[in-house]
């Protein structure tokens, strides 16, 4: 404990790190304040907004927006249009040669892709904002002083500006703060729901309207939550290290190369994307039963209940399938083999070229399956928690998209903080080893990461 307080004190001794942390906290505070500002022309006291809780895919969007979606806030769409645009550009970089060329152009190529992403974000936001005001804003909540047509026009402009404002805040955090700005904004939105969810669970266990269980059940739930978090950290940080040997080069009196490094192949290379894709498909049966009355009471209803066995098994299968799919399109063994060959590197015992790419592909296939299974288990844990009597709001933190995002963002941020500490010759946050985030792993001894 003394070492922890010493390390925290060292953080505030580094002036640059202290300024970055304070700047990040200030920006996040501004975001949370603005997220409570409702759209112009909306009556926040209207009874139509009192029970405006969302479920399904709308509940997922509301979680990413930190509750702004259900509050009819000017930041209701949050950063989701930007994330959607980023995913589209990323997929285009895999399928379209022009985008592939820009990815290989270095800094100039990245600037072009960022500009395209911003323009695409504006287009997606305009489309989503039109759908939002048409379907999610109750007519009863619109003030009579503003006509419906004028309200729709103003709302689309304000929602688009709100998303661009959030995107700007995220970029400012990335440039002048600590951690990835967009990820931190999503994380803050998720954490903002935790106090209310925990309060509901405490009330259900030990409050005046207790549903049974008492303090013992509450303590067991907290312990189970900590165990799930530790398990998730294990999955996020898990890597398979493939050794790479570099040939020696003698230039004058100096020797270059000749060191052994490794390629860190992540067990969960796809991250949270398989869960998002699988959830999008699992919302289709619910949408069909809502729009087609004849489907109500049919077998499709089993796939509309998140806690049913059929839903959980199908959800897990889709996650496993999408994990293999997303890993296949984002991790390119052939390109890794070519880059290794150009730099004079080789895997000991494996011939360069096709044999190396086949070996890497085989390793990826072997580690992807357990990673996909573990990811599926994490995704269905909230449904299992509900089966054990845990409230729906609190059960969301036992797994799924929210927990993976929280763990990943926290690890990335701690990794950056630890880098500042080690650069100033202070002890890191961990007594042994190094904190690793989603985008990097420590090199063995003094060797660098490939």
UniProtKB/TrEMBL annotation:
Spans through the membrane: 21-39, 72-96, 116-133, 145-170, 177-196, 216-239, 267-288, 308-331, 367-388, 394-414
GO cellular component: plasma membrane
Superkingdom field: Bacteria
Record-linked Gene3D superfamilies: SecY subunit domain
InterPro entries for the chain: SecY, SecY/SEC61-alpha, SecY_CS, SecY_dom_sf
Major localisation: membrane
Keyword Lipid metabolism appears in the UniProt entry: no
Pfam families membership: SecY
Localization, UniProt: Cell membrane; Membrane
Keywords (A to Z) from UniProt: Cell membrane, Membrane, Protein transport, Translocation, Transmembrane, Transmembrane helix, Transport
GO BP term, pick one: protein targeting
Membrane protein topology class: Multi-pass membrane protein
Family to which this protein belongs: Belongs to the SecY/SEC61-alpha family.
Subunit structure as annotated in this protein's UniProt entry: Component of the Sec protein translocase complex. Heterotrimer consisting of SecY, SecE and SecG subunits. The heterotrimers can form oligomers, although 1 heterotrimer is thought to be able to translocate proteins. Interacts with the ribosome. Interacts with SecDF, and other proteins may be involved. Interacts with SecA.
Function: The central subunit of the protein translocation channel SecYEG. Consists of two halves formed by TMs 1-5 and 6-10. These two domains form a lateral gate at the front which open onto the bilayer between TMs 2 and 7, and are clamped together by SecE at the back. The channel is closed by both a pore ring composed of hydrophobic SecY resides and a short helix (helix 2A) on the extracellular side of the membrane which forms a plug. The plug probably moves laterally to allow the channel to open. The ring and the pore may move independently.
HAMAP family found in the cross-reference section: SecY (MF_01465)
Protein name as annotated: Protein translocase subunit SecY
């Amino acid at each position: 404990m003394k070492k922890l307080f010493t390390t925290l004190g060292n953080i505030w001794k580094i002036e640059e790190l202290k300024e970055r942390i304070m700047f990040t906290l200030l920006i996040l505070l501004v975001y949370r304040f603005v997220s409570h500002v409702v759209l112009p022309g909306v009556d926040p006291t209207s009874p139509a907004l009192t029970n405006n809780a969302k479920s399904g895919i709308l509940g997922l969007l509301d979680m990413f927006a930190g509750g702004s979606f259900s509050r009819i806030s000017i930041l209701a769409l949050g950063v989701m249009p930007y994330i959607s645009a980023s995913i589209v550009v990323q997929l285009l970089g895999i399928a379209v040669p022009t985008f592939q060329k820009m990815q290989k152009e270095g800094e100039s190529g990245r600037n072009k892709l960022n500009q395209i992403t911003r323009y695409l974000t504006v287009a997606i936001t305009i489309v989503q904002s039109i759908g939002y005001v048409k379907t999610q804003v109750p007519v009863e909540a619109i003030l009579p002083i503003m006509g419906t047509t004028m309200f729709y026009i103003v709302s689309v402009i304000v929602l688009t500006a709100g998303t661009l404002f959030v995107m700007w805040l995220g970029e400012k955090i990335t440039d002048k703060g600590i951690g990835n700005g967009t990820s931190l904004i999503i994380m803050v939105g998720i954490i903002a729901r935790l106090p209310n969810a925990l309060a509901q669970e405490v009330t259900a266990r030990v409050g005046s309207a207790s549903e049974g269980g008492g303090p013992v059940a509450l303590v067991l739930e907290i312990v189970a939550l900590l165990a799930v978090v530790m398990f998730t950290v294990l999955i996020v940080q898990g890597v398979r290290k493939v050794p790479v040997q570099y040939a020696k080069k003698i230039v004058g009196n100096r020797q270059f190369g000749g060191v052994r490094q490794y390629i860190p192949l992540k067990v969960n290379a796809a991250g949270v994307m398989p869960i998002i894709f699988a959830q999008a498909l699992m919302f289709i049966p619910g949408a069909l039963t809502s729009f087609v009355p004849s489907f109500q009471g049919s077998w499709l209803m089993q796939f509309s209940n998140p806690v049913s066995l059929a839903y959980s098994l199908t959800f897990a299968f889709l996650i496993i399938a999408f994990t293999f799919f997303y890993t296949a399109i984002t991790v390119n063994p052939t390109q890794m083999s070519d880059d290794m060959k150009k730099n004079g590197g080789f895997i000991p015992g494996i011939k360069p070229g096709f044999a190396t790419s086949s070996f890497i592909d085989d390793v990826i296939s072997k580690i992807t399956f357990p990673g996909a299974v573990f990811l599926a288990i994490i995704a269905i844990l909230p449904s299992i928690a509900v089966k054990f009597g845990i409230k729906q709001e609190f059960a969301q933190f036992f797994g799924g998209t929210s927990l993976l995002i929280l763990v990943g963002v926290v690890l990335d941020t701690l990794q950056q903080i630890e880098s500042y500490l080690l650069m100033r010759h202070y002890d890191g946050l961990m007594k042994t080893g190094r904190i690793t985030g989603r985008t990097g792993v420590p090199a063995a001894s003094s060797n660098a990461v490939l």
